[in-house]
Each structure stands twice: as structure tokens, then as C-alpha cells.
Amino acid sequence: MQLDAEEMSGSLIATTDPTASCQLRELENALARLRPEEQEIILLVGLEGIRYDDTAQILGIPIGTVRSRLFRGREALRKLLDMDSQPRSAAAELPEAA
Fold it and tell me: Which CATH class is domain 5-80?
């Protein structure tokens, strides 16, 4: 299953604040630079709020693969958004779903 970051971005924009709009564009651009399998995990878990076990079932992959792709995708996003130099607690986190 492939999810298109551009299709999903329309549902992300919920404000007219120029700073927030700029941040969303930066996030969209960073998401587009991730590997497709990392994009779909980030979107399913982080945006849609789907649980890890349900995500694994949807994609037909083991739950451990969901966790590792999510970890790698989040780390890549932090680097792309230049958040890797901030303390982890200060960095914006995507929600965890158990």
C-alpha cells in the first residue's frame, strides 16, 4: 500500500498562520524525501493515529518492521528538519501508538 504525501498534505493544513503554513510545507518536503516505506508508516501511525499492530496488518508486515521503519523515519525527519541538534524532549514528536 502506497500513501501519497501530497494527497495527505491537504488534510494537514488547518490554519492560515503563515508560520504554521511554512512549517507544514517544510514537513511535507521532508516527508517527500523519506523512503516510501517510511512515509507510509509515518502517515499511518503519526497522521492517522493507527496502532502499530493494525498498521502491521494493513501493510502485511511484522510489527517489529513497523517499529523499526517508524524509528528510522522519525530520525530521518528530525535530521531533515534540522531537529537532531535539539534535545530529544524538546523536539516535536509524532504521537506514539502502542
Answer: mainly alpha
Mapped onto helix, strand or coil, the DSSP state of residue 87 is coil
Buried b (16+ CB within 10 A) or exposed e, 8-26: bbeebeeeeeeeeeeebee
The alpha carbon of residue 39 and the mean position of all alpha carbons in its chain are separated, in whole angstroms, by 6
Distances (CA, A) of 89 to 15, 19, 25, 32: 25, 22, 23, 25
Q: Output the tens digit of pLDDT for each of the chain's 98 residues.
A: 666 666 665 555 555 677 778 888 888 889 999 999 999 999 999 999 999 999 999 999 999 999 999 999 999 999 999 876 555 544 445 555 44
Q: What is the dihedral of CA 83, 11, 57, 51, to 10 degrees?
A: 60
pTM exceeds cut of 0.90 = no
Per-domain boundaries in the chain: 5-80
